[in-house]
Amino acid sequence: xxxxxxxxxxxxxxxxxxxxxxxxxxxxxxxxxxxxxxxxxxxxxxxxxxxxxxxxxxxxxxxxxxxxxxxxxxxxxxxxxxxxxxxxxxxxxxxxxxxxxxxxxxxxxxxxxxxxxxxxxxxxxxxxxxxxxxxxxxxxxxxxxxxxxxxxxxxxxxxxxxxxxxxxxxxxxxxxxxxxxxxxxxxxxxxxxxxxxxxxxxxxxxxxxxxxxxxxxxxxxxxxxxxxxxxxxxxxxxxxxxxxxxxxxxxxxxxxxxxxxxxxxxxxxxxxxxxxxxxxxxxxxxxxxxxxxxxxxxxxxxxxxxxxxxxxxxxxxxxxxxxxxxxxxxxxxxxxxxxxxxxxxxxxxxxxxxxxxxxxxxxxxxxxxxxxxxxxxxxxxxxxxxxxxxxxxxxxxxxxxxxxxxxxxxxxxxxxxxxxxxxxxxxxxxxxx
Length: 433
Prior knowledge:
Amino acid/polyamine transporter I; about 75% helix; about 0% strand; globular
């Protein structure tokens, strides 16, 4: 029985192994290069000032260290809903459920926030209500996802090129002014830099969702970790250059007060038509992010349902190789979440939920390494303790800077998740999944 079939109730179509390393890498870049840099760069600039680039770099280092744990654990358990799988393997099903539940909840919050960002850009362009625009986007995304993961990823790769071109445009606009700025100006000190990094961590979310493609990759045990590192490194280079350019082209104080920061940058230097160009690109970027988050979140729900942590019907796969009911649930919940919402606050709650889940993943690796799951090579065992320990410290530091309201929200999410867990009425045998 294949990993794709194991634990899936009933007979029927299975997820198809059609994806290679570069497809998944570019898909990860597509998720990462989304609403974070297009919308959240303004409040981050208020915190970090001209040292905005350092906030992006600190967030990238945290993401890259965490990706090490994902890559190592995926080698022994290349399955969907990776946070659930890894924490279950290390600590049992209840802790695994908490990790997986927080990641699913955070993904839905992120999708809702980005969909609202899309709605705001479309309202700026067409004057239609933001919530309605967001609903229309979700309907279009549902149709694309239903066509199958291969079609979804190919479509996303096109949009990835568009949003990357937009960021390259911003970089080029700022290059002539690079020598005119003090890039170490920190108006709020290290605390402000840490708060900006916690906020901009939202911009890197997506690398962990790449693990949800494990059951649809041809060689996940070899290619998943490499794909994650490629996506994070490529995105970090782009983000740092964007940060340098935007604070060079526009004073960080003015940038921090803008609701359309990248449009402000190019509009200030190139005129009013540039605003339209960046608005269209932002629509592509936010739409692309919502598409890939919905694909990934539906795979998380599928993975947890296949393991018995959620109702088994959610693990059913349709004739296009798509988990239809899981996708419908994810789209439906996201549609409900678009109704209220402040993008910056929703992003902070998203970050807090994911950072807690990342902490559980980082702790899982040394625990499992200590049990000899990865062999006895001394150098590798040292790395399997040292790297996740460093990542855990950085994740905890950023978590402290997401704000008390985010912490309360995460506790509430955990409580709701445990109620759902009890409602399902199943306990997963130790190590299953």
